[in-house]
Amino acid sequence: MKRKKKQGRVGRPRSQAYKPRYDLGTPELAMKKARATNGEDPALSTTALDRLFAKGLITGDQRQAGFRYLILRQQMFGKSAAKIGSYTDLMGTFNDLAEERTPEEQQELQEEFCNADDALKDSGTASYHATRAIILDDLERASEAAQRGLTALSRHWGLV
Length: 160
Known about the structure:
Blueprint: H1 27-36, H2 48-54, H3 60-77, H4 87-91, H5 97-100, H6 103-122, H7 125-135, H8 144-156
């Protein structure tokens, strides 16, 4: 009976000589990120605000205002997408950071978010919904309404 020849390990080599400094992913993923950002920095392909900024459809101030609104909302209500690591995470509170804040800090945070939300609502109903779709739902829809909403947020915080 003939013995089978033992094969070596399959896959990427373990040697440091072949290991890239930064793993850029598969060539397909790198091309997808480059297409999403028009060949600009691939790090700008993570959120809709980043992709719109990379394509030149929104300004840096509008992008910064959008992220500030997102962070405020996450501090108020928690993340918009559930991320559960284990069953015990289900037993915890929805926003654990709220427990660490004093009532005065929570009140200040709530007032700041409400003021920003009111400034966004003042830009119009269409702008309000279009801007929230970009910021919260990560939908990449550049429109004049979204531009007005992001500009209203930028003005609210004095970025423009």
